[in-house]
Amino acid sequence: MKMTTEEAFVKTLQRHGIQHAFGIIGSAMMPISDIFPKAGITFWDCAHEGSGGFMADGYTRATGKMSMMIAQNGPGITNFVTAVKTAYWNHTPLLLVTPQAANKTIGQGGFQEMEQMNLFADCVAYQEEVRDPSRIAETLNRVIIQAKRASAPAQINVPRDFWTQVIDIEIPEIVEFERPNGGEEAIAKAAELLSSAKFPVILNGAGVVLAKGGIEASKVLAEKLDAPVCVGYQHNDAFPGNHPLFAGPLGYNGSKAGMELISKADVVLCLGTRLNPFSTLPGYGIDYWPQDAKIIQVDINPDRIGLTKKVTVGIVGDAAKVAKSLTEKLADTAGDTDRDARKAMIAQTKSAWAQELTSMNEEQDDPGTTWNERARAAKPDWMSPRMAWRAIQQALPVEAIISSDIGNNCAIGNAYPAFNEGRKYLAPGLFGPCGYGLPAIVGAKIGQPDVPVVGFAGDGAFGIAVNELTAIGRGEWPAVTQIVFRNYQWGAEKRNSTLWFEDNFVGTELDEEVSYAGIAKACGLEGVVARTQEELTAALAKAIEDQMKHGKTTLIEAMINQELGEPFRRDAMKKPVAVAGIDPADMREQTV
């Protein structure tokens, strides 16, 4: 049938059920955005495209439904790069629409021209450019399907002079696909290893959250074996936190109980995880990865299997399907060896860690350094980061969705949140962008309006997203709650400076005259300052009530001392040695 190219584009979006688009309005995409309202597509015009991309990531991770990023060609599109790469490592299926400069001017260095395909080549799982107006629906359909198959962003590049053309076209059908359930031989061998294991441990990753029924399938398998279940870094929602077999997150500032238990494993089932290095780095001085254990790795992407750890059995498949198959193939006696002793050890190890975590108030200094001691002395009445996290736990609803930014104080909190279902914990992932916490939780709230949401960010990272306060207060935007840990420093970088650069703080200090709560008020939102644990618990409880019952967005500045947690990467840093030396006298004046 005859239609315009923009009608074909939007009809294809409708067929795939894509209802939300995030970005900033631009002339290159106005022919399609003009018909969004009629199509049932909401365009969320944020303050910066990068934040719009994080909103799309948050929406899709909280709902499991695809969303779309779109903006003006050139500078609008380049602002999406960080968000798209973040979504790639978060395994988030998103549609990236990049309107392109007109065909007749490409290569002339025209207004807002950019080579947008090369720009995103390393950030998406699939990309394609529309070659002819009549192929616009075909191309879009294929890009969306590829994003779903790869569980990652995919890009369609559209020259802007292809809009407003009349074409004769048929909207393509959606080709459904079934996720692989693992090879028979691999499943059989893995089931044999698990059946004979004396101390089996399961490590759940993002794939368990993304797979339909993945958490439940892993729970059934864990209960059959009475195996403790750890989760990967920033995947605290990959197993129910109230389950007696849940051992907590591995990796940076994770669960010491999980680390101690997995260190005893003779067989580890790595379910739905690419075993990223950050999830297996030593923590609390424990090098816990079991070097002699048999490793079974399950991942939907065969390229990830065996990439970071030596693997005994590799299984390419959907985490839920593989877990079900393994449960069916287990021997009747699977898990029986030392079952009661293992269950007792799990409970005892978890209890000891819970008590230790509750008693942890202070961050430790490395030998030869004194920054944390000095920070406590400088502000003796201020909350420490861990005191703030315990105060937050008192008021955070169990059903809440939370987001976390990158940074020292958010990372200190990695061991604290636990969840009883998936799609509850939105962290920036292994690309590690600052400015993720606020926009991600806004996207989550758009997708789950009846669920309380709380975002977390350090004050350095929050400064990158603070401009979104100018956008999210409008009537059509949902209410959220955002906590900013306020200590006036870039904490992770400052900890590096204390350890390896003799307190030479270059670029680590923030402006103490800035009030984020004041900025929130200036934007028509609620702004609150909390200085004690009691004030923080009360402020969060009220903010969530205002969010859910009165439609109010609240920003809480949690004032904390300048204690600093573990460095992110002890393995990546070392103390520099001066050889030639640097002399300020060597600097010459520039001539005009």
UniProtKB/TrEMBL annotation:
Protein name stated in the entry: Sulfoacetaldehyde acetyltransferase
Assigned protein family: Belongs to the TPP enzyme family.
Thiamine pyrophosphate enzyme central domain residues: 187-326
Organism ancestry: Bacteria, Pseudomonadati, Pseudomonadota, Alphaproteobacteria, Rhodobacterales
Single Gene Ontology BP annotation: isoleucine biosynthetic process
Class in the EC hierarchy, top level: transferase
GO molecular function, one term: acetolactate synthase activity
Species of origin: Sulfitobacter albidus
Lineage: superkingdom: Bacteria
Listed cofactors: Mg(2+); thiamine diphosphate
Xref: NCBIfam families: PRK07525.1, sulphoacet_xsc
A cellular-component GO term for this protein: acetolactate synthase complex
Keyword tRNA-binding: no
InterPro entries xrefs: DHS-like_NAD/FAD-binding_dom (IPR029035), Sulphoacetald_Actrfrase (IPR017820), THDP-binding (IPR029061), Thiamin_PyroP_enz_cen_dom (IPR012000), Thiamin_PyroP_enz_TPP-bd_dom (IPR012001), TPP-bd_CS (IPR000399), TPP_enz (IPR045229), TPP_enzyme_TPP-bd (IPR011766)
Domain Thiamine pyrophosphate enzyme TPP-binding as annotated: residue spans: 405-557
Record PANTHER family: ACETOLACTATE SYNTHASE CATALYTIC SUBUNIT, MITOCHONDRIAL, THIAMINE PYROPHOSPHATE ENZYMES
Keywords attached to this entry: Acyltransferase, Magnesium, Metal-binding, Thiamine pyrophosphate, Transferase
Domain Thiamine pyrophosphate enzyme N-terminal TPP-binding as annotated: residue spans: 3-118
UniProt KW tRNA-binding keyword: no
EC numbers for this chain: 2.3.3.15
